[in-house]
Amino acid sequence: MTETVKIEIYADNLSVTQLIASQLAQLVTAGTIILLEGNLGSGKTTFMQAFGLALGISATITSPTFTLIDEYIEGRLPLYHIDLYRLEPSQIPSLHLEEYWRGEDFPLGVVAIEWASKLLTMPPAHLKINLAATISSQNKDETKNLDLNLEDDLEVLSEARLIHLIAQGETYIDILTTLCAEAETKILVISNAKQHL
Ligand SMILES: Nc1ncnc2c1ncn2[C@@H]1O[C@H](COP(=O)(O)OP(=O)(O)OP(=O)(O)O)[C@@H](O)[C@H]1O
Ligand SMILES: [Mg+2]
């Protein structure tokens, strides 16, 4: 039986996303896998920039859309930042991403994968983070599945995001539970559901 814990956070501005990311960076350990999902411009790389800064990485974290994998080794833990956007799911197995969490060929660190929904098989234990643009605080249930860099989507070019964090496996549930407890006073946690799948 795999246990999953899911929380939903309403981030009404960029600094909330950055706060969650930097608090998460304090809690991760070597071997942590973060799967980032959400449409174009939803904030996956932005999340990782704040995360990296809090991990002690001074280099600017940029989108690995073209490099596919960027490695940062100066922080508290190595960070392997991966972006699958340009790949077809069938091309991904040849990247051998599992090498990054096996701990043999690379020092164990944090593996963060943007567009992780393209993975044909997900690592069994992980923290999934899904970011979605939402229109405004008055309409926070109207999550938009839109690509924010489309010019005609100006209406949703706000900073509001719905962030779902889904922990699968005991280690990740512990991380998420602590994150929730530490962040709850500063952010609005909309729901906190525990499921047995
Ligand atoms: N609350 C927020 N959380 C995250 N990003 C936000 C927020 N509000 C505004 N933004 C802005 O939205 C943009 C998100 O772009 P970013 O490159 O991080 O998206 P992405 O999800 O990585 O896109 P892609 O799929 O192209 O990789 C940035 O310009 C960021 O400043
Ligand atoms: Mg990105």
Query: Strand pairing plus helix content: what structural class?
Result: alpha/beta
Helix content: 10-25%
Q: What is the name of the CATH topology?
A: Rossmann fold
- Could you give me the name of the CATH homologous superfamily? P-loop containing nucleotide triphosphate hydrolases
Please state roughly what percent of the residues sit in beta strands, choosing from under 5%, 5-15%, 15-25%, 25-35%, 35-45% or over 45%: 25-35%
Question: What pattern of helices and strands is seen along the backbone?
Answer: EHEHEEHEEEEHE
Task: Output the radius of gyration.
Answer: 16 Å
Biggest sheet record: 9 strands, mixed
CATH architecture: 3-Layer(aba) Sandwich
Ligand types = adenosine-5'-triphosphate, magnesium ion
What spatial form do the alpha-carbon principal axes imply? globular
Counted up, domains total 1
Query: Count of helical segments?
Result: 4
Q: Can you give the mean pLDDT?
A: 87
CATH class: Alpha Beta
- What is the terminal separation in angstroms? 6 Å
Low-confidence stretches: 151-156
Quick one: how many beta strands?
9
Compact summary:
The chain is of the alpha/beta class.
Description:
By secondary structure, this protein is α/β, with parallel strands linked by helices. 22% of the residues lie in helices and 28% in strands. The chain contains four helices and nine strands. Helix 3 links the parallel strand 4 and strand 5. The chain is globular. The structure holds adenosine-5'-triphosphate and magnesium ion. The site of adenosine-5'-triphosphate has 18 residues, from helix 1 and helix 2.
